[in-house]
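Reading is simple: the token line describes the chain's fold. The lines below illustrate.

. . .
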Amino acid sequence: MLFTEDFLHYVWKFRLFDRINLRTTADEELEVYSVGLHNSHAGPDFQNARIRIGETTWAGNAELHLSSSDWQRHGHTSDNAYDNVILHVVYRDDEPLFRTDGRKVPTLELKDRISPDLYNRYHNLVFGNQTIIPCEASIATVDGLTMQNWLTRILVERLEKRSEAVIAALAVNRGDWEETFYQFLSANFGFKTNALPFELMAKSLPQSILAKNKNNPMQIEALIFGQAGFLKDDLQDEYPRSLKKEYDYLSKKYSLQPVENHLWKFLRMRPQNFPTIRLAQFAALVIQSNHLFSKVLEVRDVKGLRDLFTDIKINEYWETHYRFDKESKPAGKSLGHASIDTILLNTVVLFLFSYGRHLQLQHFVSRALKLLENIPAEQNNITADFANLGVNINTAFESQALLELKNTYCDYKKCLQCGVGIKILKPC
């Protein structure tokens, strides 16, 4: 049989082995009262197991291996942490085991106690010929309650992992949520392709400097475009020349160093997504909004949050330009509905969740999850694949969870740690 130790853990955890007339390899009568709690850290695999061997009841840890000889191969013979193992559970017993004090370790062999049907379903799931995900032939049969419960769990896992970056940045910013939000919001205005230079620009231009020039829109635009590195060249149009003049003065006043202009990417992008347009939109948002994160905390519905980013009036110069000194046909350059939802998804949701989790304010965590339920699902290759497999995807709550499912579980074939995989494998 071809399987990993994880499969043995799965069989033990859910008691999916023949439990009739259990006996140890020393032919002692065995009864399993509790398999224990699965331990994902260092030490024995299952903690606080409870069994009876002969007339004696034992409480302690259980260790699992494919073969008994793995005990010595893994260095447990000389490790005192394994002296309290009350049962060694193996697929194949190939040698007797002894603790550091010389006492024999009771062993249960499962080789003839795992049903061929369970093994075949596991083998087909993990080692079968799949093109998208391991359970692609079965995922549509999983009931809605199981799917919803699992997606909720892994969505929270995803947000918890992403919130670690927020809390790390918060520490660097000395607990300033507004500054941290401003930096993440800036990065998300880059929409992946230009996220890095946007982030560097924001970190090089603290909100405190912008606040000092809040009443002068031209200076705000000059600071943002200047720090982005777009005001170094000789410029022809009056508007960029005015920006350059302002920036030359302000950069000396505040000892500013711009980011490298070569970091910005224009290639294979729609003009509406050019970094110059995104910077103009970001500048307009800064001019229009004071203490934006505080407003995010106050607004309770998705419409109100969208309104914070809607109808942002960028400088009229950009109505006929996509880049400095290159005139184009007139076109509106406000943030579109899809772009606003992307900002809500990647910044607002993340910060509501991080704020609530960090300060133990559950209502903000709940608001983050509720907001995801009111944002349409993302359209990408992963969600398209799941939709083709029969999975219903209507909201960003579901699409974000499915991204986590694919990237964290499916791609690594962690079917035995996945609620969907466990449901498919369990006997009917």
The chain has a mean pLDDT of 93.
